[in-house]
Amino acid sequence: MQSELWRILGIDSRDGGKLVARLMRRGLLLREATTYKGRKTYILRYSDNTRAPINISVSLNPVIEVPCFTCRHISRCGIGGYYDPIRCPLLTRYLLLMNARRA
Predict the structure, then answer these.
(1) What's the average model confidence in pLDDT over 40-47?
(2) Distance from C-alpha of 62 to C-alpha of 83, rounded to nearest angstrom
(3) pTM score, two decimals?
(4) Start-to-end CA span in the chain (Å)
(5) Alpha helices in the chain (DSSP H)
(6) pLDDT above 70 for 38
(7) Are the beta carbons of 44 and 24 closer than 8 angstroms?
(8) Biggest alpha carbon distance in the chain?
């Protein structure tokens, strides 16, 4: 309900009305008139424009280079243990290489 949204956001109906009008002009929001607790208000709904599927492409190439992902000791690795990431020569070499690339 529009009136409940104003209460939750802590804004008055004037500011809320401006916000809703802007979102409606952009086609992002729909309003349906209704009565709630004896008062006229609106139900706010996303328009169908906002429900379009979103395709996200993620590249794992930077992560795959981290030597830990191919290490056969990863299940036993931990700070203070025999296989400690602080003393790992592969991880140290990787971090130094990444630091040199940034410079």
Answers:
(1) 84
(2) 23
(3) 0.42
(4) 53
(5) 2-9, 13-25, 61-64, 89-102
(6) yes
(7) no
(8) 71
Compute the residue count for the chain: 103
Angle CA 36–38–44, to nearest 5: 20
Nearest to 16 by CA among 33, 28, 4: 4
Q: Domain ranges for the chain, please list them.
A: 2-50, 61-102
Question: In whole angstroms, how large is the CA radius of gyration of the chain?
Answer: 27
Structure tokens at 23: 């979102």
Distance of CA 9 to the CA centre of its chain: 20
15 vs 49: CA distance, rounded Å:
24
Answer yes or no: are the C-beta atoms of 44 and 54 closer than 8 Å: no
Give the DSSP H or E segment for 43.
strand 39-46
- Rounded to 10 degrees, the C-alpha dihedral 77/78/81/82 comes to 20
Residue 96 has a pLDDT of: 92
